[in-house]
Design goal:
Elements (H helix, E strand, L loop, with lengths): L1 E3 L12 E9 L2 H4 L9 H16 L1 E10 L9 H12 L4 E4 L9 H13 L3 E4 L8 H34 L11 E7 L5 E7 L4 H12 L5 H11 L16 H9 L6 E4 L2 E4 L8 H20 L11 E3 L6 E4 L11 E4 H4 L10 E2 H15 L3 H21 L1 H26 L5 H43 L2 H7 L2 H11 E6 L5 E5 L3 H5 L4 E3 L17 H9 L1
Parallel strand pairs: 2-3, 2-4, 4-5, 10-14
Antiparallel strand pairs: 1-3, 6-7, 8-9, 11-12, 12-13, 14-15, 15-16
Helix pairs in contact: 6-7, 6-9, 11-15, 12-14, 13-14
C-alpha cells in the first residue's frame, strides 16, 4: 500500500530534508489482527518512523507498506515501488523501523542498500543506530546477518515442528473441506490445535464420493448436484462462503486425507483424524478418475486404427499417416517417418503403404496367440507363482493380524478402566484415537497386501484369456476394435527398413511373453508384391465416405 503525502502548507517553511518510510509485516494474519485493516504492527512502525523523521528534521513525502509479505524475498510490491520512487525523486532518507523490515538475507540487503546509495538516499533505522560511519556500517552488517540467521533458523524450527506433528498423526496444514481446524485443551488445560469433522459439510463429501464411485456421474455434473444440495466453502475473514470451484472439487476426490492419511512432502502419513470415506470407495473413485483421464487424453480424431501406434524401426520416430491425392483425384495412403519429414533425424527409410502395415501388424498377432491348452498351462503357472509369493508374505500378515488383536484388546481394557472410573473421558478418547489410527493403518496394509495379490492375479489371467486365438479376433473386429487392441496389447509397433514389424508388448502381456516381449512379424515379400502406389484400404475408404 503506497501513500503519497500532500505537500506542507506554503505558510510554513518546509524542512530541508525529505524522507520515505517503509513498513512491513510478514503474514496476512498480522496485517488484519484485531479486526483492523492494518492490524497493530504497521501503525506502531509508522508512528516510530514518524518520530525518527521528526528528529532528523525531515518531511515524509511518501510511505510504502507491504502487508503480509515475507522479507526472505525482495519481490515485494511496495518495496519495488519505493525503489522506483527514490530513483526519480529527490529523497534524503529511507526510514525503516528495523533493518529486518527491509530484508532478511544478506544478498537482498546488499542489493537494496546499493540501490539506496546510488539514488543518494541514506538508510535510517528508527530503533537501531546505523549510519554511514564505519561503526554504523558494521552494526548494519551485523543486524542484517542476525536477521538472516533468525529467518533461516525459524524456518528450520517450523519444519521440525511440522514433521513431528505429522509423525504423531497431526495435520500440519489447513484441513480440507469436510473438516475444521479447531483449538482444544487437554486435561492440564493446555491449548492445542486439532482437526474435527465439519458436521455441516462432511455429509456432502461422503455423498459425493459414494455417488462418483457408482461410475454414473461426471465430476462436473456431480459438482453441480452437490452445490444444489448446499455444499459451500468455509467462510474466512477475507472471503464469504461460496460455491466450491471445479479444480477444488477434483482435488477433494483425489485427496487421501479423507481415508485417514495426511499428505506431507510427497508422502502419505497415518493421521489421527476421523476418516470420512472407507478405503474401498476411495480406491474405486481413484480408478474411475484414472480411466476418465485416459479417455480424455485419447479423445481425438483418428484417421486410421494404426495411427499413433506405429514407429520407425530405424530411428525410433513416430510413423505419420499421409493421404496424398494424384491429379485424377485418387487418394493414396502411406505411413512415413516423421523424423525424416521434419529432418530431426538422418533417417532414410521410405514410406510404407497402409495395407502393408495393416498386414504386418495382423501377422504379429499370430505370434502371440495361444490355444486353450496353452492358456490352461500358463494360468496354472501364474497361480502357482502368486501362491508362492503370497506364502512368502505370510509371516508379515500374521504379525499384522497379531498387532490388530493386541490393539483391540488394549481398547477393550481402556474401556473397562473408564467404566471403573480408573481413567477419565479425555484420556480414554486420546488413547482410543491412537488405537483407531493404528487399526486403520493395519487394515490398510492388509488390504494393500490382498490387492497386490488378487489384483495382478486377475489382471494377468484376463490378459492370458485375451491372447486365446487373438489373431482371428483381431482380423474379425472393426477398426475401433483394432485400435483398442493395439493400445491394449502394445506400447508401440516398430517397422524397420526391411518392412518387418515388431510389437512392444505392454504389461501384463510382456510378463506372460517373458523374453519374447518383442514379437516380430512377416516381411513385405510375404504379404504383397511391391508396387509404386497403394490405394486407400477399406478402413480409410469407409472413413473417407463418411466425411
Amino acid at each position: 500500500m503506497t501513500l503519497l503525502l500532500p505537500a506542507a502548507p506554503e505558510v510554513e517553511e518546509a524542512p530541508a530534508f525529505t524522507a520515505v518510510t517503509y513498513q512491513r509485516v510478514s503474514t496476512k494474519e498480522q496485517a488484519a489482527k484485531g479486526g483492523r485493516d492494518e492490524g497493530f504492527s504497521i501503525p506502531a512502525q509508522r508512528e516510530a518512523n514518524g518520530r525518527k523523521a521528526e528528529a532528523l528534521g525531515a518531511r515524509i513525502v511518501a510511505e510504502f507498506v507491504d502487508a503480509g509479505e515475507s522479507a526472505r524475498s525482495a519481490d515485494r510490491p511496495d518495496l519495488k515501488r519505493m525503489l522506483d520512487y527514490i530513483a526519480s525523486h529527490q529523497v534524503t532518507y529511507c526510514i525503516v523501523h528495523k533493518v529486518d523490515r527491509l530484508a532478511r538475507n544478506r544478498l537482498d540487503d546488499v542489493e537494496i542498500h546499493r540501490a539506496l546509495l546510488d539514488a543518494g538516499v541514506k538508510l535510517v533505522s528508527a530503533t537501531e543506530n546505523i549510519d554511514e560511519t564505519p561503526s554504523g556500517m558494521l552494526l548494519h552488517g551485523i543486524m542484517s546477518s542476525i536477521a538472516e540467521f533468525y529467518s533461516k533458523n525459524l524456518a528450520t524450527e517450523v519444519t521440525k515442528g511440522l514433521t513431528q506433528k505429522v509423525a504423531t498423526g497431526g495435520t500440519p496444514m489447513r484441513a480440507p473441506l469436510g473438516y475444521l481446524n479447531v483449538r482444544a485443551k487437554d486435561e492440564q488445560g493446555r491449548e492445542y490445535r486439532t482437526v474435527e469433522v465439519d458436521e455441516e459439510r462432511a455429509p456432502f463429501i461422503r455423498w459425493a464420493f459414494d455417488q462418483y464411485a457408482t461410475g454414473e456421474h461426471s465430476v462436473v455434473d456431480l459438482l453441480a448436484d452437490a452445490t444444489a444440495r448446499g455444499l459451500t466453502t468455509i467462510p474466512t475473514p477475507q472471503r464469504p462462503s461460496g460455491p466450491v470451484g471445479r479444480s477444488t472439487f477434483f482435488k477433494i476426490l483425489r485427496n487421501p486425507y479423507y481415508i485417514g492419511l495426511v499428505p506431507y512432502k510427497g508422502a502419505n502419513h497415518p493421521g489421527s483424524h476421523e476418516p470420512l470415506i472407507d478405503l474401498t470407495t476411495w480406491q474405486r473413485v481413484q480408478s474411475i478418475l484414472d480411466t476418465a483421464k485416459q479417455a480424455r487424453a485419447r479423445k481425438r480424431i483418428h484417421d486410421h486404427y494404426l495411427k499413433g501406434s506405429l514407429f520407425c524401426g530405424a530411428c525410433g520416430s513416430r510413423l505419420q499417416l499421409d493421404l496424398p491425392t494424384n491429379k485424377q483425384g485418387i487418394q493414396y495412403a502411406y505411413y512415413s517417418c516423421s523424423g525424416r519429414r521434419t529432418r530431426k533425424t538422418r533417417c532414410t527409410r521410405r514410406a510404407i503403404p497402409v495395407a502393408v502395415a495393416e498386414q504386418l501388424v495382423a501377422d504379429c498377432c499370430a505370434r502371440i496367440s495361444i490355444n486353450e491348452a496353452q492358456y490352461v498351462g500358463l494360468a496354472k503357472k501364474v497361480e502357482q507363482a502368486f501362491d508362492e509369493r503370497f506364502a512368502a508374505r505370510s509371516d508379515e500378515l500374521a504379525e499384522l493380524a497379531a498387532n490388530r488383536r493386541r490393539l483391540e484388546d488394549e481398547s477393550d481394557k481402556l474401556l473397562a478402566a473408564h467404566f471403573a472410573d480408573a481413567i477419565d473421558l479425555p484420556t480414554l478418547k486420546r488413547h482410543q484415537d491412537r488405537i483407531r489410527a493404528g487399526l486403520a493403518d493395519i487394515d490398510r496394509r492388509i488390504t494393500d497386501e490382498h490387492d497386490q495379490d488378487q489384483g495382478p492375479r486377475r489382471q494377468i489371467n484376463k490378459a492370458l484369456r485375451l491372447l486365446i486365438d487373438c489373431q482371428r479376433l483381431y482380423k474379425s473386429t472393426d477398426a475401433h476394435g483394432k485400435r483398442l487392441a493395439n493400445q491394449t496389447f502394445t506400447t508401440g509397433i516398430d517397422i524397420d527398413e526391411d518392412e518387418e514389424a515388431s510389437l512392444r508388448l505392454a504389461e501384463p502381456f510382456a510378463v506372460t511373453a517373458g523374453e519374447h516381449s518383442h514379437v516380430r512379424g512377416s516381411t513385405t515379400s510375404e504379404i504383397v508384391e511391391p508396387r509404386r502406389f497403394e490405394l486407400l484400404t477399406s478402413c480409410l475408404q469407409s472413413r473417407r465416405s463418411t466425411n
